[in-house]
Amino acid sequence: MAEGKVRVLHLLCKHEKSRNPVSRRTKESTAGVSVESAHGELKAILGRLEGKSGQELVDAFAKEAQLRSDCGSFAQGGDLGFFGPSEMQKEFEDASFALDVGQMSGIVDSQSGSHIILRIA
């Protein structure tokens, strides 16, 4: 592991309050997507991931990210690689560092939109 850094997979649902409301996956605007709708999608995804752990969770999370994430990292299964303090938006960074390796967050809101985060290192 890179000293003082974490590595996460994440799934982003952009919505009307996202600072750049355009999906990197579909190239379409998300300005018509409410925060509540984004949260509803993420809750459904969390439900499908519930009960999984270890590599099974990593694989299932990556598949969900490839199918739904609005971040450009969707193509890598949501993998953002290693990052350290002050490299990400505060809400996202705080949530990522608070997780144990193998632990998945609930819904985390940032300027980019609403996320689910899985710490993998």
From TrEMBL:
Q: One Pfam annotation, family name?
A: Rotamase
PpiC domain: from which residue to which, for each copy?
Answer: 3-121
Q: Which UniProt keywords apply?
A: Isomerase, Rotamase
> What top-level branch of life does the organism fall under?
Eukaryota
Query: Which leading EC class covers this enzyme?
Result: isomerase
Q: Does the keyword Isomerase apply?
A: yes
Coiled-coil stretches: none
Q: Where does the UniProt annotation place the signal sequence?
A: none
Q: What Enzyme Commission number(s) apply to this enzyme?
A: 5.2.1.8
Q: Tell me the protein's name.
A: Peptidyl-prolyl cis-trans isomerase
Gene source species: Durusdinium trenchii
